[in-house]
## 1
Amino acid sequence: MEKMPAAKKQKILMGRVVASLFFEPSTRTRLSFEAAIQNLGGRVIGFSDSSTTSAKKGETLSDSIRMVSRYADIIVMRHPLEGSARMAAEISQKPIINGGDGANQHPTQTLLDLYTIKKKFGKIDGLSIGMLGDLKYGRTVHSLAYALAKFEGVKLYLIAPEQLKMPKEIIEDVKKNLKIEETSNLEKFLPKMDVLYATRIQKERFPDSMEYEKVKNVYILKEEILKITKKNFQIMHPLPRVNEISDGLDKTSAALYFEQAANGIPVREALLSMLIGKKKKVEM
Amino acid sequence: MKKEIKVTPIKNGTVIDHLPAGTALRVLSFLKLKNNPITIAMNVGSKKQGKKDIIFIEDKFLGDKEFAKIALIGKGATMNIIKNHEVKSKGIIEIQDYAEAIIKCINPNCITNAEKMKTKFIIKDRPLKATCYYCQKTMDEREIVESIK
């Protein structure tokens, strides 16, 4: 998609309507989807604040989806409840793209994460990848762990405080295909990593704010870490960050997170193109 | 010592035998029986299990959905369908690998707890686990038993 001329791209969704239903706040996912839709010549309907919709009046999600699937050709949705996208896909007449369902999954983020790693390293097989921070509530790391298990020889370092460890059922699911090390000690494994995928400790997912206060500053990445990392070491982050990556790292060769965010556009363009059936296989 | 169970045989209905000792009341709680005569035998001697529970339900032939629920709580339990005092069919109540609308998801943030919809679970045995098809939360045996609807 990145190499496709703009005029050609504009024809892909021409005359098509894509619904962008964001029942939960989003910046990057929503904006990159909407930019991708417009780059492909489509039109966007939808909302980014569910308090202005019939959901506020008590309309069920299933009724909202039944209705919107009659207005649009594709539905992109983010919803705070886990499993919401899967339910929507069962009742919708049109394709549903999951833009995040509660603490469960964020599959399009994973597609762009994989694309970013592949673009940087030329491969995913055999890489050593660390996941840092909130591995319990962080849906991006859940989806990425499942996706990495599809590749060969990937080593996964899971670094989290005790309260925010990766759910054991996910580890059970992926451990056959990944070599996994779990620890709370970042420095021990940092020199072995090709990529460190940092995450924000998400205040909004904590049932108890005291628990959040205990762990919010537990991992902060600073420039000094580059003294012990591999030469081509890269830091990724789904953004937004709060303070887990210091500004000093932004201009170093390890900062991959802004490029990662930018990759959201071609990846989402490719996904939309595939769903509309213009191309069975899309080169990014 | 001769083992005896002193209950009157039922004429028509269902006998659930070989339930793990102590589970009969939990089984009855989700069978939602109305006015059927019921006899329960708890902690009775069993060659295979040491102790077991048995439930005799008069005038009620349990269906697949009820047996699917019982299977989750009573591994190895058996059922006998009685008609006119004769055993018409019998067998082990097997765990199915898929459960629809018989378990509630324990994840309060699961869509199935917000919408009027059937729950779906993928079931795995040894050890017993149920994974919600929607939110992907996996429940262990204790959580499953508490969540049978």
## 2
Amino acid sequence: MSGYNFAYLDEATKRMIRRALLKAVAVPGHQVPFGSREMPLPYGWGTGGIQVTASVIGAEDTLKVIDQGADDTTNAVSIRRFFARVAPGLATTERTAEATVIQTRHRIPETPLREGQVLVYQVPQPEPLFRLEPRRSETRRLHALADYGLMQVKLYEDIARHGRVGSSYDHPVMVNGRYLMSPSPIPSFDNPKMHRSPALQLFGAGRERRLYAVPPYTEVRSLDFEDHPFVPLRARGRCSLCGAGDSYLDEVVTDDRGGRLFVCSDTDFCGERQAMREAAE
Amino acid sequence: MSGLLPGFADPVADAQSAFRAVLEAVARPGRVQRLPRSPAPPAPLSPAAGAVLLALVDAETPLWLDAGVTAAEWAVFHAGCPLVAAPGDAAFVLATGAPPALAVLDPGTDEEPQRAATLILQVATLEEGHGWHLAGPGIEREHRLRVAGAPDGFVDAWAASRARFPLGVDVVLCAGDRIAALPRSVTIREG
Amino acid sequence: MYVAVKGGEAAIANAHAWLAEERRGDARVPEIGTDAIREQLTLAVDRVMAEGSLYDPGLAALAIKQARGDLIEAIFLLRAYRTTLPRLGASTPLDTGAMTVRRRVSAAYKDLPGGQVLGPTFDYTHRLLDFALAAEGLAPPATAEADPGEDAAPPRVTGLLAAEGLMAAEDASDAEPGDLTRTPVAFPAGRALRLQNLARGDEGFLLSMAYSTQRGYGNNHPFVGELRQGEVAVSLTPPELGFEIEIGDLMVTECQMVNQFHGSRTEPPQFTRGYGLVFGRTERRAMAMALMDRALRGAELGETAEAPAQDEEFVLSHSDNVEATGFLEHLKLPHYVDFQSELEAVRAMRAAVEAERSRRAATQPEMEGPEG
């Protein structure tokens, strides 16, 4: 696409985002305000993640884009196509293992990430306390004081009422023992994958104009209580396509008479397993 | 301005390459990164310091540097950054000689720790595997980094700065075309 | 010598003539026809029909032309026309389950019976100006035959959840709902009137209020259970016939938001519904309406109302843009009688303050502060 800089953003914007990213990595879990730009995709579609990816990638990178774990979901296809248009030379892939930069919405791949990979999360709401205190002027103060009593009380009330911690996705985490952080709306099943991951994890919230980061091998603890430890949720069963019993499953409704089956949400992971099974047969 | 040395050969790709090296360095403190696509800045600036500067500094970031008039002219011409006289007013501080004390640089505020200064510190050599013991986010167990030419008393000053976390100063060490970073989250023990 | 200002009639006539001229614009440019507006500015037409509470694309197009593209003005025109129409009867409830869908998506399931049908959506376009559109006379590229899916009337997602007992049941009622265009709303209004109000509320207002609930001002955890768009039949049972007859089709958009509900003393944990149904392809409005419907159900579900979006009286009283724009813009009208008494009041207050200050200065000059 002529008339646009490599990766769409102009160089001054990239520098601004890059400086913010470096500070975000230096203060793990802290939300860094940044001058988010209007993008040619709507807010909520991943403008934060797109801006982070655009500031990070170069022509030597291999980009993978997933939404709900899948490479073939409409929004993932659209974003991958966008980068293919605006970043000449950039390779794209659907293979987790081959990617150097992975932009994601709502999932962490099942295939363990490695050093040298960057995982870019699209974040709708970076403020983990927003349901408890909607005023960002106030939550900023609470983060400065590391005062997370509100969240402890909320989790305690969940347990008292439902016998378990209430959030099945976007379950808040403590990063490096200092900052309370939203993991983005990933299922709580994925939370443990953030803990001491060898990959660099970057988070972009375009509409809310915040960036944050978790460096590799950093402690990421899902909030819980000693007598009510954090338990990630997952549909019971196996994938109907590859047989995996340890992956996160999507429920597919097959008819309107209660018919259901489960398949891996991570399409690359599932495809790999199916290919291996076929090869073995 | 005749005789002014050029900046990046390919401003878009080279800046991206330098940034990725800095990002990797900050994310894995003590790991040494090479910057093969560095410019050739005027002495006493090293290629790595020149690359980090051009990748990150611009009109929005006040710069303090101690590298003399030619280097300052080069930086202002290519990066368009304002120069400041006091290190405490700078977003980026580039030291080729004895750097200003960490304590005088901007450490950010409790609510805005991201406003802290970045110190680009030129040293003689950087070597992995021995020297300082580094621990903290980005490090699986321990990284070792030998820094030849580090300022006197740096490890003690760092410990004092580390105690203010999340306030503090982030450091990018440069030697030749190599860099390593010390984000404020890292702890250093003499080796 | 001063002559009092008169000549309002001439001023108004001149203004109207000028307005007509401005509406036409440069006479060398062909005049836009209402048929062009109806066919090419379809989403503007749909918005005007929805907020004008009148399903007539031709009249909506005329209103848009007459209003020079000011949609609130066009809505106003349509409302003013609508109010003159006789009310002949009430249709039977629309069966959106039998809708011929042109678009149907669920964000809650990857795949489901009837499939995901994207339809003609902006959703995955890249927002880059298409300069080819500036060139006139280009025929649009041929589209692939629209695929209505295996099933033209796919099952509702909320029905699938209900079959598993996970969807809170709604209070069914055969009572004829009130009509807020005929009877003023009293609070609490109840859900039927709320939905009526939201269905014709200002799109910007609904959007912003719904957005505020997403940012923490009124909690919700919404999923788009299903969004469907298409044509539904409108039927009427004339009392003299005693059986149902179909009188036409409407293009509508329906949104069913599914929200987690932790349960109460009497209800188990389950999903609750936020419902939106609007004229035309006004998808943003349908979604905002569904979020607002759920936000306003707090009292019924035992939630405490803390945010503006959860306050029924606040939301319903301020959602109508014809009311709002009228009252806001009326500030342009002459107010000089009232203003005259304000002037007198302010002058009197200043005189009193001055007198008090002089009195104090005369008695205690040494107490005067530097800012006094």
## 3
Amino acid sequence: MILQPYDMRMGAGTFHTATTLRALGPEPWNAAFVQPCRRPTDGRYGENPNRLQHYYQYQVILKPSPSDIQELYLKSLAAIGIDPLAHDIRFVEDDWESPTLGAWGLGWEVWCDGMEVTQFTYFQQMGGFDCKPVAGELTYGLERLAMYIQGVDNVYDLAFNTAGVSYGEVFLENERQMSKWNFEVANTDALFDLFAKAEAECRNALAAGVPIAAYEQAVEASHVFNLLQARGVISVQERASYMGRVRDLARSSCEAYAVKMTPEWEAKYPGWSLV
Amino acid sequence: MADFLLELRCEEIPARMQPKAKEDLARLFSDALDKAGLAAASIETFATPRRLALIAKDLPLATAAVSEETKGPKVGAPPQALEGFLRKVGLTAEQLTERDGVYFAVVEKPGRETAAVLAETIPAIIRAFPWPKSMRWGAASLSTESLRWVRPLSGIIALLDDAVVPCEIDGVASGRTTMGHRFHHSGPVEIADAGAYIETLRAAHVIVHFSERCKLIRDGAAKAAAEAGLTLVADEGLVIENAGLTEWPVPLLGRFDEAFLDVPPEVIQLTARVNQKYFVCEDSAGKLANAFICTANIDAIDPAVVIDGNRKVLAARLSDARFFWEQDQKTPLAEHAKKLERITFHEKLGTVADKVERVAKLARWLCEEGIVAGDPALAEQAARLCKADLVTEMVGEFPELQGLMGGYYAAKEGLPQDVSDAIRDHYKPVGQGDDVPTAPVTVAVSLADKLDTLVGFFAIDEKPTGSKDPFALRRATLAINALSSANSLRFSFKNAINAQPIIGPDTDSFTIFERLYGHGFEHRSERGAQEIHDNENIETLADDILSFVVDRLKVQQREAGVRHDLIDAVFALGGEDDLVRLLARVHALQAFVTTEDGTNLLAGYKRAANILKKEGFKAAPAEAALSYTPEPAEKALIDALGAAAPRAAEAVEAERFADAMAALATLRAPIDRFFEEVTVNAEEADKRSSRLALLGRFRDAVHRVADFSRIEG
């Protein structure tokens, strides 16, 4: 199933409900989508050849993880022109953990000639619940792969299309302005306010029994927290406390979603239980 | 006899786990053999990213028959007892044997086929395997009870000679089929038997011997460097890691832009090593060269393509490192240091900035007191900057560069070399075997830093207990001892503790003693003082710390062959808190007690001490005129003691410990003779008490050198 990006600011494709929420429960789920990602602290004002505060991930989620998932993945690389006898492809241990989502998994970062091109994870827990069954998540770094295939050293030199438009022409000015806004301009009082409002709205939605809406507010709070970090207004001591608050929102939302869906799941899969 | 091959194939096993996994497999397998009463002539294990394997040679084809005897109730015991026993052993009454009025059940267990034992053993090993982290996968993971393995398990080979040992675990059945190299060999690989395993896989581009891959990488990297006219910087950790990442390792040398060599070599090496697992090389002058060696897992169609890809990745990493290097230098260290106020050192010991303040004062004091022959102003300056690099971008990225980067940045700022060296090296020594600083300013800062840590955590009752030492106080103490003895630092430990300023979150600076007692500092925050410690007795704190330090000294000196009981014997005298002097004394004592004089004197001492103890004799009175004529041996001891006691005391005072021992040695003959010829427990009360007093004075004289009662043997 090919899905569209989630229409919110988020730090990674994993935040898409098609990944987080759908990793819960017993039902098979096979989906793929592109997700624009925002990481304010990674901004480099357009001056670093491969660090961006806004970039794209292509995410594939396969539940349950198929037994030939590695072979499928390698075929996907071959399909975009990466020959594994010409390029050195390696699966290097990289376990994934998102305290924010109460989630963790084991897997690898996939190297192509030393460059990390994909994050490959078998989800073991999500929202504090064991994944039953386990989903396999593949996260491709689109810019990196494109740089690879096109043989360019600088992301802004990528050809965006075959009509001569470069990635830089599309995004360079955006990187400059957004880096400046993330690091220097964003009104921090307004951000603190936004954080508090997202937190309150998340609780409101949870109380009303609409956990998907609550989850959206958790995603919002997470991104606002990242912006506050980029503005450098959160001290070391406060940082842990803010992260705890975001984690609490995200986990509560996942948990509420799982609990709400459980009767349906149990009915379809006799013998299955959430815990 | 038969050879057995086991291969457990799975998706890529983390490199770091492979060496331990080999050991675990060998252990679990041989334990299982033991339990079954089987033994192999040899067990060899193999690991690659995609398989864990074992070959056991010369296994018997069956286990030996055994007869097991179980003791039952007495003959004539209540029938319920007998029935219970029969149920337990599964026999009838007629099958029991009787001996000495007791029933015994004898069960003959016939030998089992080894193949059958192995068929049970394999699933048991898989289920019990102690991976540091394991996972579930696939459709079976609908249940949390599904099989766990380090990564999805995809195949099992189990061959006893050329026959498959049939077994199955969670849908994975044993067979003789495996896979070759992921890219160089497509399709399954059939293994005939254990003897064919290694070469069959080699033909499929898999080198199963971990050590052979290590050698290929080690030698191949050295050769690649030599061909480029360079020398490989050997790194065995990287060799092992790359061996765990490859089944067909091919070291390849590439070049990076020379312009990056402006960045400190340690940074380049670390970037290459940690992020990319590359080796680096040196030129003939021993300087870092603009070359890296990566280890590919394929014989690439065109190695230049692989090299170029890796070069680009390294270039991106190095440009980030250079960005940090340049950014960090835009701010002087003193400015960076201000940000330390934002980092908590420990909630009760304030921020890192507070710690720096304490260390600076203590480092200055160590120099001012002449304990360390450094310039007090430079020591203070270095201490104030020593932690500043913790807030730099570079150390944020590579925490292991702490100290080193501060040293570089200080040098770039043009600070005195004593200061930049001290910043660079003040964490040293970080463990046994690490270089111990000798530059005075460095020694002052390093010692002050560790004393502050040790005293601070003891003051807030965060002492190491058992195996728990979360603040690494044992390591700090070993470093204090190493710094003291390598530099012959003469100081009273208790005085150093006394000089230690404590600065907490809410308080001004004052020493622990002052803080705890509040002497003259009543105007300062009492709250902080209460938070810091509820132990009113500062002497106890100082004693606690000192005995902890001496305990560590014993551990440290054990390797150097210094006896712990002798350290106790000197330390037990009390008042010895100068570690250098303590050790000098111990060395002299050790030299003495191993001589014949020493051994005999110790025997004489123990005899005297036993008598005194039995008589409840405490302190010896001053020497008094005797009311009787002493026996010759008694007179001889009195005279010898009269000469030796002041000589020994004087020698100790002057720290001529060998002379002190020599003085004690003169007592050996007289004390031996005294015990041979004189009756201590004389009938006359005055003789008895005088002789006890004499022995008391003898004991005191010995104690002026060391508490011999602590000496073993």
## 4
Amino acid sequence: MTGVPVGRPSALGAALRRWGIRPRLRTRELTLLLLAALALTVGWISLASFRAGSITTGDPTLLAGYLGMLLAIHAAFVLTGRRTDQVLLPVTGLLGGLSLLLMSRLPQDLASQDLGFAALELAPLQLFWLAIALAMMAVLAIVVRNDNWLREYKYTWAAVGVGLLLLVFFLGDETNGARLSLRIGPIAGQPSELLKVILVVFLAGYLAENRTLLARTSTRVGPISLPPIPYLMPMLAMWGLALAVVIVQRDLGAALLFFSVFLTLLYVATRRFAYVVLGLALFLVGAAVLYLLFSHVRTRVDIWLDPYVDPLGTGYQVIRALYALGRGGILGTGLGAGLPAVGDTPAIPAIHTDFVYAALAEELGMLGGLAILGLYGVIAERGLRIAVQAADDFRALLAVGLTLVVVVQAALIVGGNLKLVPLTGITLPFVSYGGSSLLANAIVVGLLLALSDRGVEPPPAPTTGRRFRRIRGEG
Amino acid sequence: MDAFTLTIWLVRIAFVLCLYLFFFVLLRALWRDLRTTVASTGRSLGRLVVVASPEGMPVAGSSIPLDAIMSLGRDVNNSITVDDAFVSAEHALLTFRGRAWYLEDRGSTNGSFVNGQRIEGVVPLGYGDELQLGQVRLRLERDRS
């Protein structure tokens, strides 16, 4: 799992070490990266050849730039010699590469932005965001050796999160009926993507500190026993937050993601199944009330139940996605041969953000779609493994939460694409177009990588909570 | 079906095959990790082998099984009593946190050493590292099983 330290004790070695460079080979990461690069190159050739009508590599600048970036990050990991996980980079790299392939294939005018130095369209723009996101991930994975800045300031982080929410509420722009994006100068971002990372940091800190109290039972309501009432308050607050996100921001996806991640983390921290039951009951009550009161919630659920009621209006998007999946079949139509666009208008609205999975599943078929789902499964496995091996509760809960944020989000949107659950407008991590989404998910993977290092600073010595110390006369 | 259609079909299939090749190598790596984890759980945390002990307590060559928290020092209330003239009463603390051993000096007069270097604060240990308190040298070893 860990690489072998290389370099003989020499003058060069000593000089390198003085600069903090301790090379350590990462053979597994390199092998996987090379295989991912091979797959992406073959995909690129397939796309370019289909378009040109003869076997050609087309213009490989974008792909070459992306692969070069992945190798540069690998080199940086090798040179700094930290013993971090070797699987996460190739997996996220392959997902990002698939995203680049798809964005090169879609009509280029779906997104465009003038960045000051250059006006970019869809594919180059996605490469630009990927570059920033991967750099962020690498910096976090290399630099973060100490988690006190997350552990000690959990309430500060929570305040930052609430502040972001308020900022969006008062200053945000509306797109597709949801008040999501915040515009600073020329760049528009979606703070709810960052909010999910902040939420996990806060929950991990809070639950790590109070898990023993939360696991106690003292209140009994009928057959289920509950912890002391004051400690239930955060749960109600979370529920309220999720409702507020739905009502104020009209963002069903984020609300669903926040609440499911919260419930799972609570269960992981306390092992009390009563919480899950209670949480699901709260969820059902909240969902029923929202369904009755708010039209945007009702529309989503009605489309899910039967999109054919209004096939050319509200149901159009979902129906087109189902047709795309059907056209793809088992082997797919091949890159470039699908029907994501009729003329210059995309066949499925929001194909580059919410419906990337449908687009990929059409062109790569069921086999390709399953492989993509499998990659998220691998991220889940690695994240939970990092949690199991973590040195203390905070790190374990943080790792679980970060993993869940990525995997649950992927499950929600893929389920929405397949009409398995009501469609919620969130992105497919690492694959959808969009800077905020890529950046937030890269931060998640960067933190996971940093947590996976077994050579980092030890956590503070285990202590009992402040309350217990006071009881024992030590405070 | 002309030659070009056939070629492009082959390239297409090759792309999906490449994805699965990546996936296969990935799963093999995960499987290997899982096997090593399963093999290493249930094993004890390790032991200390006494390499040198001039004053005979603990006896040189003996091996001491370890619990998660082991205190070392001259006082008899320590988990491991190290009776050596250069060892303080409460000398050092050896703790297993999650998955690695850490050594901490408890303000001893003559200090604790790991692989010949005096330690400050809490330092992580690897199996095979040599600790020195006073004249006593101990080696942290994985249990053979």
